[in-house]
Amino acid sequence: MYADNYMNANIYLPEKILIPLLGLKDPVVGVEIGVLGGSGTLAMVNRMPNLKLYAIDPWRHFEGHKYEAEHDQEYHDRNYEEAKRRLKGFENGVTLLRMTSDEAVDEVEEPLDFVYIDGDHSEEQVRKDIINWKKKLKPHSILAGHDWQMDHIKRAIRELIGEPKLGDDLIWYFKYEG
Q1: What is residue 140's three-state secondary structure?
Q2: What CATH number does the domain located at 13-70+89-99+106-126+135-170 have?
């Protein structure tokens, strides 16, 4: 049972972190790593009309991987179609990149106001995502992610960047000064 003021990650991220720290006036460019069915993506673009978002997910099965990647290809294809359906009408603000975050890091060339990591949950990949995407952040930007309850994610974050601020629904984040 959650407190009355509890917000899931889809709502908490834009309303309690992105909008207060980045605002709604100036253009904001962000990356979401791990889209699944697009509900979090939709929550961001619905609340932030100034947002240009790169939504990254391979939407494919990876043999031997845990978490979402373990599901069969049909599951990933359904989620990809659901994300496209949910985001219909937002094509000017959202670019879906059907590739891994390692592949996408070279596709996204502009400096970023935020990166939200909720893709491959392995410790190795969380570390790679932090290292690869932190380089693309502008000064005064945000590095955030999900699933703070996982010890290996805590370890990777603490070793690479320190102790984060914590939000509802297992969100962690840093205001990156660059």
Answers
A1: strand
A2: 3.40.50.150
